[in-house]
Amino acid sequence: MSNIFDEIERDDTKGVVIFKDKKPLDHRFLPEKLVHREEQIRQIAKYWVDALNEVTPSNVTLYGKTGTGKTAASKFAREQLIDAASNKNVFVKVEYIRCTDYTTEYQVIAQLCQKLGRDVPNRGWTKGEIVNTFRDIFRTNAFGKKLILIVILDEIDILLDKDGDGILYTLTRTDNVSVLSISNYLDFKNLIKSRVTSSLNDKEIVFPPYGADQLSDILTERAELAFNENVLENDVIPLCSAMAAKEEGDARYALDLLKNAGELAVYDDSQKVTSEHVRIAKDRIEHNKVTDIIQTLPLQQQRVLEAILNLTKQDEEISSGKLYDEYKEISKKDAVTYRRIFDFINELELLGIISTNTVSRGRGKGRTNIIKLQCNVNLLEDTLFSI
Ligand SMILES: Nc1ncnc2c1ncn2[C@@H]1O[C@H](COP(=O)(O)OP(=O)(O)OP(=O)(O)O)[C@@H](O)[C@H]1O
Ligand SMILES: [Mg+2]
After folding, report:
1. Residues whose beta carbons lie less than 5 angstroms from ion ligand 2
2. Among 76, 146, 225, 251, which residue's beta carbon has the most beta carbons within 10 A?
3. pTM of this structure
4. 155, 174, 207 — which closes off a domain?
5. What range defines the domain where residue 70 resides?
6. What are the angstrom distances between the C-alpha of 168 and each of 107, 115, 174, 200, 312?
7. Ligand 1 atom nearest to 65, measured from its CA
8. What is the CATH number of the domain that holds 230?
C-alpha cells in the first residue's frame, strides 16, 4: 500500500516552482529588519537603554491596531537589548509573555518565576506566596549581581479583562522590574484603576496603520526570501498592499494574502502568481474568517446576527430597538434582556462582523445606534444556516 505521507510529500514538491522557502510568510517569522518601524523601535530603545546602566527603565505601552508590527517591534527590541547587555556584561533579562497563553496574574508570575529558575507550581499556591517568591529573586540578589527584568505583556487587554489589573500593580511595585504592555485599544487605561495608573506611569508609543506603500515595502522584503525569482507578476504585491491598506493597514493580512495567493498558484500548477490568485485568496481568507467566527459564536449571538441578517435583507435601517424586536421573534421564550443585546452588539463589532454608528435624530429626539453588517450577506446566511 502506498504511504499517505509519500503522496503528500510528492504533491508538496510541486511547490518548488513557486516557493523558495515558505517560512518568511509565516506570522511568527521575525525579519532581520522592520522597515517603517525604525522610529518606534528607537523609542523603545531610548527607554530601555537605562537597563544597560543598571537603572530600571520606564514602563512602556505600545498601542496600535492589529497587524501594525507591535509584537514584531517588541521582539526585535528585545533581541537588540539582550545583545547589547551581553556585550556590556550587565545582567538584563527580557521575558515575553503572551497574555492569551497566561491569562491570570498567578499564571504570569509563576511563569516568570520559572523562567528565572524558581521551582514554583502552576497552581495551588496563594497569590501572596507566588508574589513573594517572585520578589525574593530581586530582594536576595539571587544571581549574585543586580538583575533588571523587563516583562513584555503582549495582548494585555485579555489579561486585564479576565483577571483585573493586579498583575500591573504587582509588577510595577517590584524593584528592578519594568513592564512593556502591548494593547490594541487606545482606551485600555479604562481597564486599570487609578492607583495602578499612577505606579505604571508609562511612556506611550503609538503604532499607526501602514499605508499601501509601506505594506508594499514589507511584502517586497519577504517575497524575496519566500518566492523564486520572477514568479510574482508585477501587480501582485501592489494589489496585496492596496487590499491590506483598506483593511486598516494590517501587515499580517497583507502577508496572508501573498501566501495564500502563492498556494493557489501551486494548486493550479501555475508557473506564476497572478492578480487573479490574489483576488481568490482574498475571498478565501474572508470566507474562512467569517465562517470561523460565526460558527464559534454562542447561540444567542448567532440569533442576534440572524436578526441583523433578516433586517438587512429587508433593506431596513437597523436601530437597536428594531434589532431587539426581530431578535425576540427569533428567540421566542428564551430571549435575553435588551441590555444584554448591547453587550452582544459590542462583541460583534469588535469581531468586525458589524459596525455601529450613533446618529442624532434631531433636537429633543435623542440619539440612536445604527447597526450595519460588515460581511457578505450570502456568506453569513450560508454559514448561519449550515450550523
Ligand atoms: N515593519 C514590518 N516589517 C516587516 N514585517 C512586519 C512589519 N510590521 C509587521 N510585520 C509582520 O506582520 C505580521 C504582523 O505583525 P505583528 O504580529 O507584529 O502585529 P501586531 O501589531 O502585534 O498585531 P496584533 O495586534 O494583531 O497582535 C508579522 O508577521 C510581522 O512580522
Ligand atoms: Mg501582536
Report:
1. 71
2. 251
3. 0.83
4. 207
5. 38-207
6. 13, 19, 10, 7, 43
7. 25
8. 1.10.8.60
